[in-house]
């Protein structure tokens, strides 16, 4: 009976997939793909039922956008806001469930922030946030009703004070230091390598450990141009790192690069001079965080993407991929999946149709699934299937070879994971 219910669900998905690829969250004209529920799940993202505003931290990479997903169960007056950190200048676009754009805003929140207030009818919505000039940006996105606390002052309000000793009342500390505080090299008292130029040490790397309460800013100096990687490790602290030049100009920021650890890769060489790393923790600022500065290694960075399941490895044998062979109808495979490195499997599809993949741990783990074609294009992604931490992914596929990555999201987990692969083809007239 369970198989019949799954088959019926896949058949319905195939009808939808005739017009567009089917994903776990396919609405707003495709803008929902890769989006995040603003309340953590669809059930907790209903603005009409929320007792307070809902907020997420958004990391927007070069030329990309962040998409917050939410629902409205009853007609509601809603406020939508995005506030960038440092010189970040966010732009917001609101899409309804069909993909029609309802509104856009750039600076109505004041001080470069975005803000819009509108009445929304019941349905699902997508709030897309991008950087005005396409540069990387970190900021906050807040969605709530008009009676909820606002994130931004609004374009008609006076600018908020920026003195770090007089923070905005009720605001939370921002990554990289106190509110309004940035890292000017003149204020740094602790340097990696005791202040010497680190060029000769980058190959092996320079490592120091301290809590953000002890050392909120680490300085370092380069005598020659160098591409560098900066990591911050301790998932119990959930570190955030921000890189500034010697004048306090924001260069880059990262929160969750690998699990809750953070990493910044400066692939373009930094010029000679002094730099500052701001360190903060979203969980516990008293926890020690290990900071490591090393030379950027493009090959190691590529392999790290494979290890995290974020990019498909080549099928030339240079990276371990288990070949499952031809997916005729139904296939089962058991693996030990971990959070340290994704397990990669490949399979062949003989003709166009629908593929369903499930990762089941029966509550023992939190598996993630990512599906790619043999060219390396991401076809589908799923983390939590409904109210379960297990994953289920449905995708429309053509004839060819596909790769799937399986990885646990919990820290230090190694879990027996049962994988189910099923293929469905359209009914013949």
Could you characterize the architecture of this molecule?
The protein is mainly beta and about 425 residues long. It has 3 domains: about 1-5 and about 310-425, Jelly Rolls, CATH 2.60.120.380; about 30-145, Sandwich (Jelly Rolls), CATH 2.60.120.380; about 185-295, Sandwich (Jelly Rolls), CATH 2.60.120. Helix content is about 5%, strand content about 45%. It has 2 helices and 26 strands. It has helices at about 1-15, 300-310, and strands at about 35, 55-60, 65-70, 75-85, 90-95, 100-105, 115-120, 125-130, 135-145, 205-210, 215-220, 225-235, 240-245, 250-255, 260-270, 275-280, 290-295, 320-325, 330-340, 345-350, 355-360, 365-375, 380, 390-395, 400-410, 415-425. The strands form 6 sheets. A 5-stranded mixed sheet has the order 1-3-8-5-6, with no helix packed on it. It has a 5-stranded mixed sheet with strand order 18-20-25-22-23, with no helix packed on it. A 4-stranded antiparallel sheet has the order 2-9-4-7, with no helix packed on it. The longest helix has 16 residues, at about 1-15. It is globular, with a radius of gyration of 23 Å. The model is unreliable at about 1-25 and about 155-180 (pLDDT under 50).
List the strand order in the largest sheet: 1-3-8-5-6
* Outline: globular
Termini Cα gap: 26 Å
Largest sheet features: 5 strands, mixed
Protein name: ABC transporter substrate-binding protein
Keywords: Signal
Organism: Rubellimicrobium thermophilum DSM 16684
């Amino acid at each position: 009976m369970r198989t019949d219910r799954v088959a019926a669900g896949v058949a319905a998905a195939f009808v939808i997939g005739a017009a567009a690829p089917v994903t776990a969250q396919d609405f707003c004209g495709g803008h929902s793909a890769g989006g995040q529920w603003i309340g953590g799940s669809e059930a907790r993202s209903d603005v009409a039922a929320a007792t307070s505003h809902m907020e997420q931290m958004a990391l927007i990479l070069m030329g990309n956008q962040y998409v917050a997903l939410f629902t409205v169960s009853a007609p509601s007056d809603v406020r939508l806001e995005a506030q960038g950190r440092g010189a970040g200048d966010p732009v917001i676009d609101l899409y309804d469930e069909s993909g029609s754009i309802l509104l856009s805003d750039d600076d109505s929140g004041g001080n470069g922030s975005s803000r819009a207030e509108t009445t929304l009818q019941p349905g699902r919505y997508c709030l897309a946030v991008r950087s005005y000039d396409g540069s990387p940006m970190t900021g906050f996105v807040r969605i709530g009703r008009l009676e909820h606390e606002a994130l931004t002052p609004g374009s008609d309000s006076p600018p908020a004070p920026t003195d770090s000793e007089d923070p905005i009342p009720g605001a939370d500390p921002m990554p990289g230091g106190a509110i309004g505080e940035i890292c000017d090299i003149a204020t740094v008292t602790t340097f990696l390598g005791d202040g010497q130029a680190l060029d000769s040490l980058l190959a092996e790397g320079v490592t120091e450990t301290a809590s953000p309460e002890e050392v909120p800013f680490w300085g370092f100096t380069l005598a020659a141009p160098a591409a560098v990687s900066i990591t911050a490790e301790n998932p119990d602290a959930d570190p955030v790192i921000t890189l500034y030049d010697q004048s306090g100009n924001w260069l880059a920021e990262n929160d969750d690069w690998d699990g809750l650890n953070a990493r910044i890769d400066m692939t373009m060489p930094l010029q000679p001079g002094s730099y500052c790393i701001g360190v903060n923790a979203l969980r516990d600022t008293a926890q020690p965080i290990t900071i490591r500065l090393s030379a950027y290694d493009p090959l190691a960075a590529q392999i790290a993407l494979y290890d995290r399941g974020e990019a498909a490895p080549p099928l030339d044998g240079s990276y371990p991929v288990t070949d499952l062979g031809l997916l005729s109808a139904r296939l089962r495979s058991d693996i030990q999946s971990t959070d340290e490195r994704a397990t990669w499997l490949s399979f062949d599809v003989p003709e166009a149709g629908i593929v369903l993949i499930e990762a089941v741990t029966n509550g023992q783990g939190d598996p993630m699934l990512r599906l790619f074609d043999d060219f390396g294009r991401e076809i589908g992604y799923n983390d939590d299937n409904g109210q379960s931490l297990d994953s289920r992914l449905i995708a429309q596929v053509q004839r060819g070879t596909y790769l799937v990555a399986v990885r646990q999201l919990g820290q230090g987990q190694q879990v027996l994971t049962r994988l189910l692969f099923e293929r469905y083809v359209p009914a013949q007239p």
